[in-house]
């Protein structure tokens, strides 16, 4: 039997799930990054990092995220 689909709130936690659900309702779609799905709330978070902290901080955080993803495999 197929596993039941989890709601965004259950899968990502309450705050991020609600933000993601609102963004999806406004028409934002998820993006594909290799074999991973990047949700709209994550894309918005990276744009806010870029706006507040600049390109160096965004590059550092993105590099750390990529390293963590590949270490967990």
Automatic annotation (TrEMBL):
Keyword vocabulary terms for this entry: Membrane, Transmembrane, Transmembrane helix
InterPro entries, A to Z: DUF4605, FAM241_domain
Residue ranges of every copy of the DUF4605 domain listed in the record: 14-72
Pfam families: DUF4605
Gene Ontology cellular component list: membrane
Topological relation to the membrane, as annotated: Single-pass membrane protein
Protein location: Membrane
Ranges annotated as spanning the membrane: 41-71
Main localization (coarse): membrane
PANTHER family: DUF4605 DOMAIN-CONTAINING PROTEIN (PTHR33690), FAMILY WITH SEQUENCE SIMILARITY 241 MEMBER A (PTHR33690:SF1)
Family stated for the protein in its record: Belongs to the FAM241 family.
Name used for this protein in its record: Chromosome undetermined SCAF14551, whole genome shotgun sequence
Protein's organism: Tetraodon nigroviridis (Spotted green pufferfish)
Lineage: Eukaryota, Metazoa, Chordata, Craniata, Vertebrata
